[in-house]
Amino acid sequence: MPRSVEVLAALLLVVATSPLLLASILISALFIGLPPFHISKRVGRNGVEYNHWKIRTMKEGEETGRVFFETDRIPPCGAVLRRLHIDELPELVLILLGKMSFVGPRPLPARLLAGLETAGRQKVRPGWTGPAQVVLLRKGKLNKRVQIRLDGVYVRRRSFGYDIRIVLATVAELFRRRRPLDLDPEASPDRARFAERVRGERPD
């Protein structure tokens, strides 16, 4: 997607959603905790890490990097912010700053990319949405290796027309009745291995 189009669209969306963003920040500050933003390191274009901002939806506690292992930290208001994807509104600012694009690979922490082939996905900026996000919305779960393959498909096929198709598919999935997000930590071999690794890293 042309950079000029992204900047204009992001600016318009920031203005249009600012009341919702401010209300969500207030809810997070009052019922979840301060600061109302969750800032984490994510891998961006060319493998450079950047500070990734989202509205805080989880209470303080042990962080593993995979939400299905931390569901006890998500209060009801946080669950609503996540389900409606309101917690992702600060990413519009990251698009304006050139850290992200509207469409691209899902931004992930470096630790979740360890052992996976990520050279292709690092050729482009992480995306607010992308093929992997559409599959996650549609099926409720997403294997990391499948996600990396979908990121590769996007890098090979990317174009303005393909970006528009992904944006439209994302909007359609958001409004379509869909399966709830699968947060079972043992729901796949990938998750089970990750859970075992987390347990192994915890002190006795």
Précis, in short:
This protein has 204 residues and is mainly α. The chain has helices spanning 3-31, 76-83, 91-96, 110-113, 131-139, 144-157, 160-175, 189-201, and strands at residues 37-43, 49-55, 101-103, 127-129. 49% of the residues lie in helices and 10% in strands.
Whole-number radius of gyration? 17 Å
Number of DSSP strand runs: 4
The largest sheet is:
2 strands, antiparallel
Q: How far apart are the first and last residues' alpha carbons, in Å?
A: 49 Å
Helix content: 40-55%
Unreliable spans: none
- Return the structural class: mainly alpha
**Total helical elements:** 8
Shape: globular
How many domains would you count in the coordinates? 1
Give average pLDDT, whole number. 87
* Sequence of strands across the biggest β-sheet: 1-2
**What percentage of amino acids are in beta strands?**
5-15%
Multimeric organization:
single chain
Q: What's the order of the H and E elements?
A: HEEHHEHEHHHH
Describe the model.
It contains eight helices and four strands, in the order αββααβαβαααα. It has one domain (3-201). α5 (131-139) packs parallel to α7. α4 links the parallel β3 and β4. The N and C termini lie far apart (49 Å). It has 204 residues and is mainly α. The chain is globular.
